[in-house]
Amino acid sequence: MDDALINVALLLVVASATLAVLCREPVRQAVALALLGLALTLLFLVLQAPDVALSQLAVGTALTPLLILLTARKVRRRPAEQPDAPRARPREQPQERP
Length: 98
Description:
The structure is a single chain. By secondary structure, the protein is an all-alpha fold. Helices cover 71% and strands 0% of the residues. Helix 2 runs antiparallel to helix 3.
């Protein structure tokens, strides 16, 4: 029975890690990373490492995806420069008189 649980947990880890790698958007990657953290937490619990499972639950499932989401939000807030928008002319430097 233990081998079956370990194999199921490992399959969940492999599937969620593959999903996290294949996602292209940072928001979806953060969600996939949270799922990977949950799968790893389950694996650590099956392997009888509750202290590692609690650490993984806090850091890998909650904090890391949250930081990624906050960073993605901050980066998206900045207005992107449009390529066809007219650019302002640089100021002309005053000429020095002899």
